[in-house]
Amino acid sequence: MSTTYIALIGDAAASRTLPPPRRARLQHALRSAIPQFNRRWRTALAARFAVTLGDEFQALLTTARPVWEILHEVHFRFPEVAWVVACGLGGIATRLEPRVAAPEVDGPCFHAARAALEHAKRRRQLIAFGGFPRGLDPLASYYSALYWSWTPRQRRAATLLRLGPPAFAASALKVDRSAISHLARRMAWPLVAAGDKMFQAALLEAL
What we know:
Blueprint: E1 5-12, H1 20-40, E2 45-51, E3 56-61, H2 67-77, E4 83-90, H3 108-123, E5 127-130, H4 136-149, H5 152-163, H6 166-173, H7 177-186, H8 189-206
Helix pairs in contact: 2-5, 4-8, 5-6, 6-7
């Protein structure tokens, strides 16, 4: 019986437009973060996180549970660029060895993730799915359209609110809690949070 996995590819969108020193710093920060990612999500990994193309990384997951966290963690850690996270659901054609890194693995799930990534780049989407139930596609479109409708400050606040409580967002932005409350009201945050819950529930049902 074949096993189903999720191939995850994260790509720093338009990173080539950054000045060379800033892009070099981004790539260094990404390489430095990979060991932390491997520790944090180790129980969900079939193949470890690894950098592939300087400002792109891959991982092979056994569950969709960490996808939401990974998406927002990269936006939190590397705010210089918008990130596209593409997920491909399917099998693999490579035997999994202990402590293998995702770029050493190949198969249908990686092909689906790569196709989803290219599709997402053309449509300016931040998350995309290949081989998943089609019901996730409109949720990915909603998520991305909402992101691009916000100001840079609102995007940063949204990432922080998705990762922790308002106090965490206030601390990271170096503002009072009242400022976060004001931002959240302007962003209609209760509606956003409800949409996020629907998105996460649909994602968890996939695998």
